[in-house]
């Protein structure tokens, strides 16, 4: 099992060198390169040149940190063809950067428009038809997660789409913080992991509240029919996810993939947040 850190707590006010050093200081051997403005940002073309790639490799080597995966988020499932084409161009560059870094894994979200699911699915499949040969040529694997407000929000639908792609190098990311979207508000983490089975390759650890609780009034949105989604990435124990059941099931499955600290809520006190979350992970998984 690889234990990794998503350094989103550091993305806005810390440069890459200091971020990698912080990952090492917090006690991690692996870092998940999530979106940040000075590297690969949401929906944008990567702001990376050869020198930055060389520098990042040196930062990692000096700190004793390895890159577990690169995480771009692009609108490759957009029903808008111009946006989809731009996303594919961005993805091609992201794959190239990942290859130059010597990393063999990327993870991402389905994106798209949940109000136009069929058109989004068609756009996603079209993008994958263009990108699959590039992933295979570069020897890079891909892990995918459903996400609130994407055209795929349910865990089982993400699994079905991954199986439809029918590539043994495309697996599932399970984000614990999305548990109450994965099954329309039940949050049955054990069932989700059972559904994933052999496709489960990556687990993102963070807590969240059930947005459907209190008769749908946990969060009061005005106007009431506004098309919004909400969730959190809290320290384990601060929300309503059943972490005892989650960890027990992962132990039963003998899960041996990537486990990432995916708490984003405390950029003002990341060391404290990490202490809480890392303790939960290590005790829960007997690491």
Classify the helix fraction into a percent range.
Answer: 40-55%
- Give the strand order, joined by hyphens, for the main sheet: 3-2-1-8-7-6-5-4
Q: What is the CA-atom radius of gyration, in angstroms?
A: 18 Å
What's the mean pLDDT score? Answer: 96
Would you identify the regions where 5 or more consecutive residues have pLDDT less than 50? none
Structural account:
With 287 residues, the protein is α/β, with parallel strands linked by helices. It has 9 helices and 8 strands. The protein has helices spanning 16-25, 50-63, 81-100, 117-138, 155-165, 179-182, 189-196, 243-252, 270-285; strands at 2-5, 30-33, 66-70, 105-109, 141-145, 170-175, 200-205, 258-261. An 8-stranded parallel sheet has the order 3-2-1-8-7-6-5-4.
Outline:
This protein is α/β, with parallel strands linked by helices.
Labels describing this entry:
alpha/beta, eight-stranded parallel sheet, 14% strand, single chain, 8 strands, 287 residues, 9 helices, globular
SSE diagram, text form:
Elements: E1 2-5, H1 16-25, E2 30-33, H2 50-63, E3 66-70, H3 81-100, E4 105-109, H4 117-138, E5 141-145, H5 155-165, E6 170-175, H6 179-182, H7 189-196, E7 200-205, H8 243-252, E8 258-261, H9 270-285
Parallel strand pairs: 1-2, 1-8, 2-3, 4-5, 5-6, 6-7, 7-8
